[in-house]
């Protein structure tokens, strides 16, 4: 089955001086230009190509990887604006992606970088982009549990923190109080579900909650202590950045965790770090 707007594996039917012709099934054949052939080829072999329609509505193939395929999000830069909309760099040299004016939340301008969702317009059959995400999200019930690990895509900044897309399917909210490290629109993160509110909205965190969070972090700290000969120079006076770089967690959570380990008799907290005094293994 051929999927336009996706990576397809197509068989090479014949080779010419200017490229190779590929079997596109119901679409007939499609030519892959010689300059886009990345490796030695032979008739009967298969090649991975991205399929799209060119400016003349003809099927085209490329070995270039787009920033986002159909059904995906990606950060793209506006390279031009005309009477029908804005065009963004799609990652394909010969094809920019159109975002019609009707699919723009606000008027886009040249050189602006925006998060774009790529889809196929049913009326025209064209692959286009949109910055209006609501119609593509929350189409299925949000069946998550607290502390469930999820994929997050930062979609926009808000007064409360960041709106994120959860697993490519639902809106979520990452509150400023749960943010640590560098977070920006377009960044992909691993996160955890905090709760599904009565109104159906979902709150997320960048780290596990409660005991589950502390247990996981405790294990990482003890493992690091073993690797470092029993001492880590990360204590109360360490910077939040140093702690985040080592354990991908906030300073507050780190301090609670080493406090728990101290109460359990596993570590001793010294002026410049922590020392392993009893290995729990």
Summed up, what is this model?
The chain has 281 residues and is mainly beta. It is 14% helix and 40% strand. The strands form four sheets. A five-stranded antiparallel beta sheet has the order 3-2-1-4-5, with no helix packed on it. Strands 8-7-6-9-10 form a five-stranded antiparallel beta sheet, with no helix packed on it.
Describe the biggest sheet? 5 strands, antiparallel
Structural class assignment: mainly beta
Classified in CATH, the superfamily of the largest domain is: Winged helix-like DNA-binding domain superfamily/Winged helix DNA-binding domain
The termini sit apart by: 53 Å
Topology pattern, helix = H, strand = E: EEEEEEEEEEEEEEEHEHHEE
Helix percent band = 10-25%
Say what oligomer this is: single chain
Question: Explain this structure to me?
Answer:
It is a single chain. With 281 residues, this protein is mainly beta. Helices cover 14% and strands 40% of the residues. It is built from 3 helices and 18 strands. The protein has helices spanning 210-227, 240-247, 251-263, and strands spanning 7-16, 19-23, 29-33, 46-53, 59-62, 73-81, 85-92, 95-100, 113-120, 127-130, 149-157, 161-166, 170-175, 188-196, 202-205, 231-232, 267-270, 273-276. The protein has a 5-stranded antiparallel sheet, with no helix packed on it. A 5-stranded antiparallel sheet has the order 8-7-6-9-10, with no helix packed on it. β17 (267-270) and β18 form a beta hairpin. The protein is elongated. It starts with 6 loop residues before the first strand and ends in a 5-residue tail after the last strand. The model has no long low-confidence stretch (mean pLDDT 93).
């Amino acid at each position: 089955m051929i999927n336009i707007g996706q990576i397809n594996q197509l068989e090479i039917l014949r080779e010419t001086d200017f490229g190779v012709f590929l079997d596109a099934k119901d679409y007939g054949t499609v030519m892959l230009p010689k300059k886009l052939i990345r490796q030695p080829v032979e008739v009967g072999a298969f090649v991975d190509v991205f399929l799209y329609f060119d400016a003349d509505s003809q099927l085209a193939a490329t070995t270039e990887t787009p920033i986002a395929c159909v059904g995906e999000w990606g950060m793209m830069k506006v390279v031009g604006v005309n009477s029908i909309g804005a065009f963004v760099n799609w990652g394909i040299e010969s094809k920019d992606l159109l975002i019609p004016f009707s699919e723009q939340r606000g008027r886009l301008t040249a050189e602006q970088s925006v998060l774009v969702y790529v889809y196929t317009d049913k009326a025209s059959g064209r692959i286009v982009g949109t910055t209006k995400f609501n119609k593509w999200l929350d189409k299925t019930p949000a069946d998550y549990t607290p502390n469930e690990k999820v994929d997050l895509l930062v979609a926009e900044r808000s007064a409360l923190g960041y709106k994120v897309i959860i697993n490519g399917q639902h809106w979520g909210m990452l509150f400023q109080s749960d943010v640590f490290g560098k977070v920006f629109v377009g960044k992909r993160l691993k996160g955890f579900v905090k709760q599904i509110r009565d109104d159906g909205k979902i709150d997320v965190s960048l780290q596990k909650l409660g005991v589950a969070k502390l247990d996981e972090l405790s294990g990482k700290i003890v493992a690091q202590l073993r690797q470092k000969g029993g001492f880590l120079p990360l204590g109360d006076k360490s910077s939040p950045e140093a702690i985040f770089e080592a354990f991908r967690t906030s300073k507050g959570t780190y301090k609670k965790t080493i406090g728990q380990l101290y109460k359990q008799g596993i570590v001793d907290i010294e002026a410049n770090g922590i020392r392993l005094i009893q290995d729990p293994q």
